[in-house]
Amino acid sequence: MSSRKPDTDGVSVSLIKGKARHRAPFLFLLPALLVVFAVLIFPIVFSFFVSGFNWPLSEGAGTRKFVGLGNYLALSVDPEFWNSLKLQLGFIFIAIPIELLFGFAAALLLNREFFGARLVRSLLLLPVFFLPILSGMTWRFMLQPRYGPLNALLLKLGAPEITWLGRPVTAYAAIIVQDIWRMWPFMFMLLYAGLTSIPQELNEAAEIDGAGFWLKLRSITIPMLTPTIMTAVLLRIIDALRVFSEVYVMTEGGPGSSTTLFSLYTHRQAFGYQKVGMASAMAIFLLCISIAFALTLVRKNMSLDSLEEKAGGG
Amino acid sequence: MKKAYIALVLALALVAGLSAQTINVLFWDDAYPRTLMERIPEFEKATGIKVNFEILQPPQVFTKTSVSVTKERTDYDLVCVDEGNIPLFASLMLPYDQWAPGKVFKKVDPNTVTPAMLDVAQWDGKLIGLPINGNLYVWMTRKDLVENPKYKADFKAQYGYELTVPQTFQQLLDTGSFFQKNGIVSGGFGPFNGGPAGVFGEAIFMYESYGTHFIEWQGGKPVLVVDKAKAIQGMDVYKKLMAISPKGAETMAHVERQAAFCADPKGVFSQFIWPAQIASYEDPDKSLVAGKILYSAPPAGPFGRYAVRGTWAVNIPTASKNRDAAAEFVYWWASKDIASWLVEKNTVPARTDALTDPKFAKSKPWLAAIAESMKYAAARPRFKEVAQVQDIVKKYWIMGITGQMPTDQATQKIIDETNDVLKKAGY
């Protein structure tokens, strides 16, 4: 004999169906969330965990020991740590504005059609495709005092030879110049793409109103390009915070500690001194810096509200 | 029938492939292991043991060994360890007396290794592996310059004594200055200012030559024993040598030194060399001075001659599952036959009988110099935190010798910061 289910059961079924419906989006998202957790969240959490330990790279170097915030405290009194941070930030604040300036100027110049424009634009991008390690090696040999072409040129001009990578100031300048050479086309690439997306009508209307080049630049181009500029700067900052191989092959951090950037010092802690816990603490510190940069740039310059304000103001 | 036959052949091939023993070997990259590779197929044929080898630059060998070898597991059955890192890895390696006897090749008697090198693989009273090459400072001087009658006469007229291979640092300064200041060479001396381990070697070389050790083991721990006045003296002399070095001496590593000595038409007058690199310096395709080099023991300071050692040992990780096969490979590598062949190929193994074989005396003039240098072999201090100390020494040594910091201040910094590292390490 079959019996009909009571009404209360019907309510339960619909409740269950309702809950299942609510769960469905999460179930669909679950694979993606798992991947994000595995490749992004877990390494960060694990690094944070390791940073709480005296964790030698090799078992032969000793045993793992929990030290709490000991590594962070040790870093806070380590002059090499602060020196590397200062050098890294200096690298960013010198190289990136110059790259931005070069990239922007080139984008403005090449944002027009002429014979061979496509070829010129493509060729300009070549340095970006250089492997950083090859770029570092090439610059190292170019700056070599006896055999490098740069010193050969100086000698021909009657100037004295310079040991570019042998002096702290010139070595630091050299790694910055190398980065500018390799990465300014990246800025150009993004800014050129941004420029081409600015509606031509705006410029035409401004021209009818009598606006000249500088006025158009100040009132139309730069405001319209701000999100692109901020994206480019943010990407470059994140990239520059991780710069390693090119500096490693150019100077190995020397002479002295004059080019030991944050990333080089982190590498040295982990693979030279066998202090993985200390290196992890530095990595967490670097992550915090990256997040701070990202939040500052995104919040202040890339929010929809500010864009609308700028568009309205413009 | 044909299908069944093919299947049988494939199955047999698979079984044969699976049953062949394979060992993974981690080599450091220089002419010596690269030369050895030519003969590895012979070993494989003789023993049926397949050798998978990986060859990396020394810093990468260090990193790979650090992460790939533990007490419980290892990716390699045989690793090469630079002598400075023996303390770090000793607890993970099988002592030599526990290596199995060979099945095809006879277990090598450690006493066949040159005494100056045997110490390299010793730690805590045990022999951890086997020293495999005979690397220590040997001095090289341009024969074509030092034997030139005109230069000999001019030098004697100027300095009042015979122009010869420099026997002391003062002679090195005199001869180097003579050739450099007269525009005959680009550099009177070729310094090494590359990686931290190498610069540390140069500092120890000068400290020892001027009468002071740097760090000594006392009461089971490393203690800084450097005599500041003598250390400054050593640094001051090196600073003077820097003044007669080629342009770019501040950053000269092995590549730049070789280019300056061998590829520059003027070249460098005198410098040290690791014997492992002699093959490149004597290769007429790569070197303008092949056959024009005189080899000797390093010049002496007021406290005698010192030749810094930089030898590699081969070690079997305790966790290896192929210990016997790995040992067999070392017995083959360290055998008289292979060692003699390696000498023939201008490389330098650690076996006394191969290095002193009279048949090489004439064709390999550096062997006599190596034997002479071995009398003065000096090790760089060895302890687990040596990498940190090397960085400190490199930083302030280069600042001192290049005039970026007065030598007394640079030496004081080395002392203070090294003490700090030792203190933090709990010694």
Question: Judging by the overall fold, what is the CATH architecture of the largest domain in chain B?
Answer: 3-Layer(aba) Sandwich
What count of domains describes the coordinates of chain B? 2
CATH fold assignment of the largest domain in chain B = D-Maltodextrin-Binding Protein, domain 2
Strand content of chain A: under 5%
Average pLDDT of chain A: 88
N-to-C CA distance of chain A? 78 Å
Q: Biggest sheet of chain B, strands in spatial order?
A: 2-1-3-13-6
**Structural class per helix/strand content of chain A?**
mainly alpha
The count of helical stretches of chain A stands at 13
Helix content of chain A: over 70%
What does it look like?
The complex is a heterodimer of chains A (314) and B (427). With 314 residues, chain A is an all-alpha fold. Chain A has 2 domains: 44 residues, no CATH class; 238 residues, MetI-like fold (Orthogonal Bundle), CATH 1.10.3720. The longest helix of chain A is centred in the first third of the chain and has 44 residues. The radius of gyration of chain A is 27 Å and the shape is flat. The N terminus of chain A is likely disordered. Chain B is α/β, with parallel strands linked by helices and 427 residues long. Chain B folds into 2 domains: 194 residues, 3-Layer(aba) Sandwich (D-Maltodextrin-Binding Protein, domain 2), CATH 3.40.190; 218 residues, D-Maltodextrin-Binding Protein, domain 2 (3-Layer(aba) Sandwich), CATH 3.40.190. Helix content of chain B is 45%, strand content 13%. In chain B, strands 2-1-3-13-6 form a 5-stranded mixed beta sheet. A 3-stranded antiparallel beta sheet of chain B has the order 10-7-11. A two-stranded antiparallel sheet of chain B has the order 4-5. In chain B, 52% of the residues are buried. The model of chain B has no long low-confidence stretch (mean pLDDT 93). At the A-B interface, helix 11 of A face helix 4, helix 12 and helix 18 of B.
